[in-house]
Amino acid sequence: MNVYVREAHPTDGWRMSSNDKDGVVFAQPTTDEERCEVAGKCRAALHMTIPLVVDHVDDRVGHAYSGMPDRLYLIDRAGKVAYKGGRGPFGFKPGEVEQQIAMMLADDKRAAELGSRFPTLSIGAARVLTFAP
After folding, report:
1. Three-state secondary structure string covering the chain
2. Residues forming a β-bridge with 18
3. Can you tell me the distance from the alpha carbon of 64 to that of 27, in angstroms, rounded to the nearest whole number?
4. What per-residue confidence (pLDDT) applies to 125?
5. Residue 72's closest CA among 51, 60, 88?
6. C-beta of residue 2 within 8 angstroms of C-beta of residue 61
7. Is residue 121 a contact partner of residue 79, using CB atoms and an 8 Å limit?
């Protein structure tokens, strides 16, 4: 899933000419409702096919996970951080994420063979506003 946090390059902040060229022209949302609206527009523009949840406007999830401007996390079935990547986009290392997923799947397979069950994942402080794929 993706978690939408603060707008990285709002029109009323660190504005980027490349965003203007691409039509990504949003002021920093000041309410949860505005943030949800902007998140929905970004999701549509990026043709996202995975679930998207939206952080509250107080940025509690973004602060807890150092999510600005973006970051890759992998959460295991017990709800614990299994992988924390560097700050994106320059800190992204997809090969590391892929390796960690493979290791987790191998562990799942071994656990299934032993009959283990895992608890379900809890999202925590994020306001769960899911946009269906």
Report:
1. CEEECCCCCCCCCCCCHHHHHHCCCCCCCCCHHHHHHHHHHHHHHCCCCCCEEECCCCCHHHHHHCCCCCEEEEECCCCCEEEEEEECCCCCCHHHHHHHHHHHHHHHHHHHHHCCCCCCCCCCCCECCCCCC
2. none
3. 23
4. 46
5. 88
6. no
7. yes
Which of 86, 120, 82, 81 lies closest to 101 in space, CA to CA?
82
Per-residue model confidence as pLDDT tens for the chain (133 residues) = 788 888 878 888 888 787 777 777 888 999 999 999 999 988 888 788 888 899 999 988 888 888 666 778 888 888 888 888 888 778 888 888 889 989 888 887 776 666 654 443 344 444 444 444 3
Q: Where are the domains of the chain?
A: 2-114
pLDDT of amino acid 55: 92
Gap between the Cα atoms of 108 and 118, Å rounded: 9
d(CA 38, CA 112): 41
Pairing of strands 81-87, 71-75: antiparallel
